[in-house]
Design a protein that fits this description.
Blueprint: H1 29-34, H2 40-59, E1 62-64, H3 67-76, H4 87-98, E2 110-112, H5 118-144
Antiparallel strand pairs: 1-2
Helix pairs in contact: 2-4, 2-5, 3-4, 4-5
Length: about 150
């Protein structure tokens, strides 16, 4: 039996709309296309990189004060997460799904650094995640095809 192919896909792929970077999972269009061909180790490595990115960006705006409450709410609302996924990366997905319904972040084990509501936090985090993913895309493009230097 074949290895199960895990994916960071959240079912919100904007690359089908022409984006080079997916607004849902922050992968490049080529990464999405090539995902099934990656080895399990390569997929795990890329998922860990995406988790680090999400945790770094979310950490600018949000603190996980109770990881157990966060996990309980994710389970309660049937929001997909992985055991090895850091709590701040999990919180990004919670905000994506529940941004319009969450009134009290503390019930979810979270606290906003600037007292923002869930919808505002989601918007700011998503904007920064997309910018970081686009910077990564530009960096990778430069590595593959370096810009020519004028003499």
């Amino acid at each position: 039996m074949g290895e199960r192919i895990t994916s960071p896909c959240v079912g919100l792929c904007s690359t089908t709309l022409g984006d080079r970077v997916c607004r849902g999972c922050q992968r490049l269009d080529g990464e999405i296309r090539d995902w099934p061909a990656l080895t399990g180790e390569q997929r795990q490595q890329r998922m860990a990189e995406l988790d680090r990115l999400r945790a770094e960006v979310a950490g600018r705006f949000l603190v996980v004060v109770d990881p157990e409450s966060l996990e309980a709410q994710l389970r309660r609302h049937r929001i997909r997460f992985r055991d090895e996924q850091p709590p701040l990366s999990r919180a990004v997905e919670l905000l994506r799904v529940g941004r319009g319904r969450i009134r009290d972040l503390t019930r979810y084990g979270l606290a906003a650094r600037d007292g923002e509501d869930a919808a505002s936090l989601h918007e700011r985090i998503t904007t920064d995640l997309l910018a970081a993913a686009e910077r990564r895309q530009a960096l990778l493009a430069d590595l593959i095809d370096p810009p020519t230097q004028e003499p």
